[in-house]
Amino acid sequence: METSEKSLRRALDRLFVPLTVGPTLIWIAAIIVYPTARLLWSSLFWENPLTRETEFVGLRNFKRILLDPGGTLEVFNASFIAFTKNTLIYVGCSVTLSFLLGLGIAILLNKDLKGRGWFRTAVIVPWILPYVMSGLMWRWMFEAKNGAINGLLTQTGLLSEKIAFLSDGTLAMMALIIADIWVFTPFIVIILLAGLQNVPEQLYDAAEVDGASRWSRFWNVTYPFLKPSILVALTIRIIFDIRALDLVWVMTQGGPGKSTEVWASWLYRTSMEFQRTGEGAALGVIMLAVTFAIVAILYTIFGGTPYDS
Amino acid sequence: MSTKDSPVNRFADRLGLNADDAWPSVVRERLVAYGLLLLYVIVIWFPIYYIFITSLKTQGEVLSLPITFVPHDPTVQNYVDIFRNRPFEAYTINSLIVASTTTLICVTLGTMTGYTFSRYNFLGNKALLLSIVAARMIPPIALIVPFFQIMSSPPLIGGLTGNLTDTRVALILTYTFFNLPFAVWIMKNYFDGVPESLDEQAQVDGCSTWEAFVKVVLPVAKPGIAATAILAFIFSWNEFIFALVLTRSEASQTLPIAVSLFVADDFIDWSHLAAGGMIAALPGILFGLFFQRYIVSGLTQGAVKE
Amino acid sequence: TGNSDGGNGSGNGNGDGEMADEITFYNAGSLEFDQGTEANIERFEEETGITVNVNEVPWANLKTSLTTIFNSQEPKVDAFNGPTWWLADFVNAGWLEPLELSDDHMSKFPDSLVDLVSFDGDPYMAPEFGKWGTYLYDTEVVETPPDTWDEVLEMGPELSDGSRSGFGLTWADKSVFTFKQLLYQAGGSLFNENNEPVFAGDEGQQVMEFVTQLRDEEIIPDGISSMGEGAVGDAFIAGEFATVESWTPLGSRAIDEWGEERVGSARPPAGPSGRATFQDTNGISISAFSEKKAAAQRFAEFMTTRESCKNNMLVEGNPCVVPDVYEDDEIQEEYPSWLLEDMKYNLEHAMSETYIQQPQVDDYIDEQITPALLGEKDPQTALEDAQENVTRLYQDIGLL
Amino acid sequence: MAKVRLDDLVKRFDDIVAVDGVSLEIPDESFTVLVGPSGCGKTTTLRLIAGLERASDGTIKIGDEVVNDQRAYERDIAMVFQNYALYPHKTVRGNMRFGLEQQGADEETIQERVEDAANLLQIDELLDRKPAELSGGQQQRVALGRAIVRNPDVFLMDEPLSNLDAKLRVQMRAELNKLHDKLSTTTVYVTHDQVEAMTLGDQIAVMNDGKVQQVGPPTFVYSNPRNMFVADFLGSPSMNFLEGTVHRTDDGYAIDLGAFEHEVPDEFEWALEGAVGDDVVLGVRPEDVTLRPDGLPATVNVVEPQGEKTVLELGLGNETTMKASVEPGGPIQVDDRVSVEFDRRSLHYFDAASGESLTFERAENEATAESAEEEQVA
Amino acid sequence: MAKVRLDDLVKRFDDIVAVDGVSLEIPDESFTVLVGPSGCGKTTTLRLIAGLERASDGTIKIGDEVVNDQRAYERDIAMVFQNYALYPHKTVRGNMRFGLEQQGADEETIQERVEDAANLLQIDELLDRKPAELSGGQQQRVALGRAIVRNPDVFLMDEPLSNLDAKLRVQMRAELNKLHDKLSTTTVYVTHDQVEAMTLGDQIAVMNDGKVQQVGPPTFVYSNPRNMFVADFLGSPSMNFLEGTVHRTDDGYAIDLGAFEHEVPDEFEWALEGAVGDDVVLGVRPEDVTLRPDGLPATVNVVEPQGEKTVLELGLGNETTMKASVEPGGPIQVDDRVSVEFDRRSLHYFDAASGESLTFERAENEATAESAEEEQVA
Ligand SMILES: Nc1ncnc2c1ncn2[C@@H]1O[C@H](COP(=O)(O)OP(=O)(O)OP(=O)(O)O)[C@@H](O)[C@H]1O
Ligand SMILES: Nc1ncnc2c1ncn2[C@@H]1O[C@H](COP(=O)(O)OP(=O)(O)OP(=O)(O)O)[C@@H](O)[C@H]1O
Ligand SMILES: [Mg+2]
Ligand SMILES: [Mg+2]
Predict the structure, then answer these.
(1) Where is the signal peptide, in residue numbers (chain B) (predicted)?
(2) pTM score of the predicted model
(3) Beta bridge partners of C51
């Protein structure tokens, strides 16, 4: 009796690893591996929207997404070029600007200030609000007639005419970028702040004793330690922005015209609205590849810690 | 010091702005830092303020000009309306169920798996861990089609009738996709920081591996679990795109969808939208105010480590 | 197009005989913004005792939702409110139940509209309310509105100055609708009887030429916004356009903002072939998989009676698709008669086409003509590219 | 309480052999200290005894039972970790109770034992605090208390004092001593601090490179190191080593140490008999180097006053330096010329090639004989 | 090189007064050690001299200049930190160059100085490695090298050896000594290790609670502590303290210590003249407690053999215990009854209330007189 209890205990103990890891692996296989496999699979098929029949088409979906259908005048599909450009502008501007802003705020927050906790709380909040709510909130801010920005600008006399921000391609992109910066800067702040706090305090002292100026201290002490955080901040930020649809969807739906159509909204539209699931999947695969490529590039630039030899 | 014991000086003292104990340039820097931070906070909170006051305005005031930055006649009518005229109760309940179930699953699995990854050197654990990290990089939007297909095809297992679209189950399954790898990662990094000698002490004290895990490691890991749970909850609570694709009725629609429903083809009901938005934003704001520490630590554990 | 849903449910479905006491109705967006529909549903519930469970789905998501439900043949939805663009696809897939609407019921709509919603002689959608072309001008700037395209081009430069453009064209967010309206005015169409795209023909070229001239003469503003954005309405109201070719709801909105005096209405400037406008109707259809078809039929009929139509226009201002209603006293009281007269005229001259994969086709056209209209692409090539894409799509599908 | 016996114990981690054939008898009620430099395998040995690692080879006996296959929770041991490993979420009382609760002891016993241990360690007043509210020394006591209440067969301690500051460490050392006198539980104690080892152990086992170099009572090992490693490791400053070649002289043996010639005293001649012509190493502890007239001439290079003693670094000839520990307060200054002599009784000779002591064997035999005598007397 | 002078230096952190009126003269070319228990303000004092903290009050002079308002980078100092604070991403060379680069030195000078310093410290071969590839001792050398190349007015060192293991620490201590002999740069050195302080300093300043307790040459301070704190802090094991009341006897003074009566030797009578009836504390260092027949009877409680010496804990009477440091290898065992005597020359008397030494004043005067004499001779 007692021995059987003992041996049961021992048996359970032996099974600790499979029992704790197994369910998660199965779960992940079901929820990540399987869909990913399906994505790759369906990128090779065409589904007839009328008959719902599927047909293996090889790489045709990729060709349709990437290349000029006629193949006569231009090599690349005009939409692909246009939306890639939009995506580049959107991701490029918002990542760059939010990174610089976030770095500044992180440096300020890293100072020995009383009430730092409160500032940090206040700074974080935009990131943890639902994107839909943030997107709509900014749509409301930019609204042509009753929006707060037009209100502020005209009621203070800075502007004589109200601007229909979201009706103009360039301004709409700008509005999107601003909203994106608003939402994601806190993330940069948190990550960079963690990096800043990793810098051993004594190195600053050492540099000061060594006679280093502020700028020299930043490059010689702060930056090497910040690099891993920069890597994380940029990687996550960029791959997040490439995939992020929420803000675009609620603020502009890719409009006006297609001036804010980015890869994510294009993918959504292609597969959900036009039911071209094969091409949507192909686009998904392309995004996947680009994401991994970007991560690889960022790693080569910012990879490694200051302690690496 | 006592000669200038005015309230202003004492306040400056509290903020570390007293030039007596610090270098003048440091004091100047601090002053500038306070100024800039304050400005930044005001700027980024202004939209939240604006949508908040919009939620307290009548529709008339919202649409009237000039724009008011303090509501003339603040009212909670919008909040009452959305709960009375629209199924906001159902949306809220959906959001709560989906977010908390997802959190529960992710925390349970993430904790167990994270612990084992942190402590054991089993066959292929490095590769498995790496693939979990890689899984976090898959753009969810790319998987929207497969998810949609899977959820809308008849279930493989179980005797449930119909497919999973428009059920909370579909959302929960989907959200674990975002959150589970993240949870495993946070918890693994957290456990890496819990001295292994604690588990060993527990074993020496007569605990089997399971008992040591449950009785000693888990209680010690509470802050890590809290961080994981809060982030998983927030992510699930806020998610929009998958909910948009996978839900279609109040049987499963969550608050973000509910808020987007105020956007009609040619008209947006801003005052009610604002009220709905504030409800949807509530957990975020509350968590931000009270659990900022956990959010930051979870994020840094989950993102920065290695 | 094969219509095989006869055997699918309606014949032997239990729904036909007894009347269910509730139905599920999918509505695009929240009912709150469809007060007309809401009011009519209330009336329906009162009169019939059938409860209508309204399911609000975001507009952008409605088609996906319905597609999934129909794909899995679920009886989740009985009736829904949608635009005509999906009709062809849905009917083709056998997802919709033909409506049992009497000739009497249907004959009150303009013929072109009845054509639009009928396949093989059966109506599949009961037209509920519509949006179609309208032409408005600012009486403070324009005395006599231009009557033809040529006159637009003539008068345009005078009407335009620094902050104002002479002519605005808009169908909210859909430049392709603008294109279609002009195409019909030029006497063209997107497709011929054999489902072959023909919009790159002469008429299409005339449209592109016309618009290009407008741009060259700076009669329409530069930039994308001029080509398709609800905000053109805002701009018109802000006084940035002397005249605007837009859609019906803008009329009542302008009157609300400006008062009746300032708003001028006219029939659209005639193109080479006439004054056709573009019809974009919303209506009610019934799922082939519904288990409550009888009640749903009753609902579809009720919601589209003359009475309901009128009511909807009174409550919400949704333009009614029954020409007769524009003579009605109550309506006459609510809106200025000169506006009603033009609306009725335009309704009766509205044109439209239904075709397979309409959103996709429209997107192909849109994606080509937008750069063309912005001067970034040769109009001829653009139309041809679009046509080529559509052709390829139809070949893929097996229509061609 | 029980004796512990390790036989040819081996533990490999991948390529590393952390413990390389350790055989060790830990008598019942003894206080055995494993001492050695960092990385020599002390901790691993202790963890093998605890059951926290599984032996790659060899056997571990606790009492008369081979416990190789038992996990830690199945063995009746208690362990004190270097960082104390107190459960941060439990109070001191909770920490101390936990082991007993796991054993299923009844409430009464638990309370009694906890009270007793707390009394013994003078932590009664801390029972309701959490570990974070305790000082290092107090945490240390709680960790001990947690082990004591269990009343296990064996106590295992892994550098339990190394996180304490110097004063406290000295104090706790004395308390550990008293505690063991009181409880007499078999204890295996790991440290890399030779003073701690010498002070605490009934028996010390000096380890290096995964192997036990020498086992024995501390003073015996100190004065009779088996090889150069042990000689060097114990004692601070370390033993001075002088290398040279043995040759015969008229009245015995001498070693040519370069700077001077060392005549081997009569009592060590037996050891060098077989080593003529070999390289040997003479070992002299600094405290056995005394300043006395008529000795070897030397120059003072460094003077390190340490309070109770002063350590000199002396230069003999050009290359050779050695340390001497002298009475403090003398007038000696850097660059003074002095004359030194070695305490003849405490000289050590090692084989230069193997590092093995040449004098050890006889010393051990003598010790064994002595203890045998003692036992007979007792 | 320059002397450093602190006058009434105060540093407050919010409510904490970390440095509380420190006045200290650090002569040019001296090696001054600040020593004291954890938290006593040593580091803060050093950082004030470095210019890493701003003084709340008082003045700091380097050379003849008041530097209170200069930041660290404006002062000509170099600092060695406890954990070395090497730039982990720079090579050893890069680390050593950095300070000179920042000063704008020309390439030639930089290379020359780096080479020289590397030679001096025997780290030439490590110049192209990164800190992570170095052992603790090597890192320590690099940190020193970084300071040396600067050729500053003052070296500041904050526990530079505390991260090294015992053997290495002893070795580096000797090297620091030699280095200072060679370079003669004024050095301020912080440690909490009294042995280190005694060994290294020309002058030690014992600190406690933000105040300097005593300044002087190490051996002088060791044998003439100004108060009980200093007496207790220096020496291991610590000085034994025995408290009692002074009363007159026929031929002088005696102190009733409970367990026994202590007769004050003649040479200390002057110190106790004014203390009759007061509570005083007798201080005896363990090495001054000798086992000799006909002394005070005592019982051995604990025997701690430490190799070169053995420490005994002795019980005198019921309550009083004291430690004695005796020659190792004796036959003494626990519970033996022994008899002890104190070395009469090395007794210390303190006022029990204030802790101040009663004998210190005269000792200081004597020392001053002596050194004045010496100076006259020189
Ligand atoms: N889990 C492990 N995996 C791989 N190698 C290990 C492991 N544990 C210990 N080792 C190696 O085994 C050797 C002995 O380690 P051990 O911890 O027993 O030394 P130690 O004597 O306790 O040293 P210290 O005084 O530094 O604690 C070392 O080389 C160490 O690196
Ligand atoms: N930046 C600071 N802010 C607040 N208090 C401080 C700060 N630096 C030091 N203190 C406090 O000042 C006192 C003296 O600290 P300091 O570091 O000088 O001690 P220390 O003698 O160097 O001790 P240790 O040996 O532990 O290094 C301590 O009580 C410490 O807590
Ligand atoms: Mg160890
Ligand atoms: Mg310090």
Answers:
(1) none
(2) 0.86
(3) C22
